[in-house]
Amino acid sequence: MLKKMQICLCFFFISGILYEISLLSSWSFSPMPMSKHFLTPEQVLNLGKSIIFLETTERLEPPPLVSCSVESAARIYEDRPIILFMKGLANDTALDLNSSYAAFSLLSSMKNVFIFPLQMEAVFQETPLFQWYNEVVPEQEKNWVHVSSDASRLALIWKYGGIYMDTDVISIRPIPEESFLAAQKSRFSSNGIFGFPAHHKFIWDCMENFVLKYNGYIWGNQGPFLMTRMLKTICNLTDFKGSEDHSCQNISFLNPQRFYPIPYPAWGRYYEVWDKSPNFNHSYALHLWNFMNRNRKTVVAGSNTLAEKLYKAYCPTTYKDLIQNAKLKDFTYSEDAA
């Protein structure tokens, strides 16, 4: 009798392992794998080489630019998990493919896109940021949405590796580097997109400096200024002469053309009509500088702006469902009202 029970327990244990393995592998091959919704963040992150996005506000409806960023990454990196962490999403929040949030349903239907709650306390555990997080008072922080995002991206890349991208970055071709920072300009690094393998010393050092030099009142002190000052401690930064990349200590410092071919003072050019659109041949992705977009310029169907062309080319489902259909609904509503 005891032997039979042992055999049964062994069978159930092995079946459980095989089931989990099948879940982890199914999303790569199935056109629409429902099983992916049973996976935990750790299981997906442990697959490695994730593309990570963060939403540190409480909003649950991703706006079109966020949807475009995630969709474009999912299309460019078809063999990699694309993860959107959302602070406003709780473990018991019932949002799925039938959600009333159009962007949420759109992204959830993509085979390699995963949307998870952002649980900061768990993210910061076993990192230099854990004590800081438990001592800081978010309500007293001037830039908490940005600071908490700066911290979360460091911790996630340290623990699991992969690429972090801001939610206003449109991917247009794969990034060939594994350990890289993105130059916003000569001798200055952004933190809006970067990639490293798990447990890379540079990211650990950044987290330590984050805490040591913490000043939440200075915008960017824990973000691009942190990355820049840490890079300067190990590299002799020089000016870019053309479209070449720099590297030192096995870290690639990628040319501003890779992600910032349109610099932030000219961010509005994305929402203008060009006589001849740029080809962005030297770029891997495009940062649309949403932080600078105070007037909330948006992509409008039929406007023929550069941004509209980018949406059509790199996030066509977002364009169709959230831009074209929205315009059609507004037109229908105005006719009904008349």
TrEMBL record:
One of its GO terms (biological process) is protein O-linked glycosylation. Residues 196-320 form the Alpha 1,4-glycosyltransferase domain. SUPFAM superfamilies: Nucleotide-diphospho-sugar transferases. GO terms for molecular function: acetylglucosaminyltransferase activity. Gene3D superfamilies: 3.90.550.20. Keywords: Glycosyltransferase, Golgi apparatus, Membrane, Transferase. It is a single-pass type II membrane protein. GO terms for cellular component: Golgi membrane. It is found in: Golgi apparatus membrane. Pfam families: Gb3_synth, Gly_transf_sug. It comes from the Eukaryota. InterPro entries: A1-4-GlycosylTfrase_dom, Glycosyltransf_32, GlycoTrfase_DXD_sugar-bd_CS, Nucleotide-diphossugar_trans. Its main location: Golgi. PANTHER family: ALPHA-1,4-N-ACETYLGLUCOSAMINYLTRANSFERASE, LACTOSYLCERAMIDE 4-ALPHA-GALACTOSYLTRANSFERASE ALPHA- 1,4-GALACTOSYLTRANSFERASE. Belongs to the glycosyltransferase 32 family. This is Alpha-1,4-N-acetylglucosaminyltransferase. It comes from Falco tinnunculus (Common kestrel).
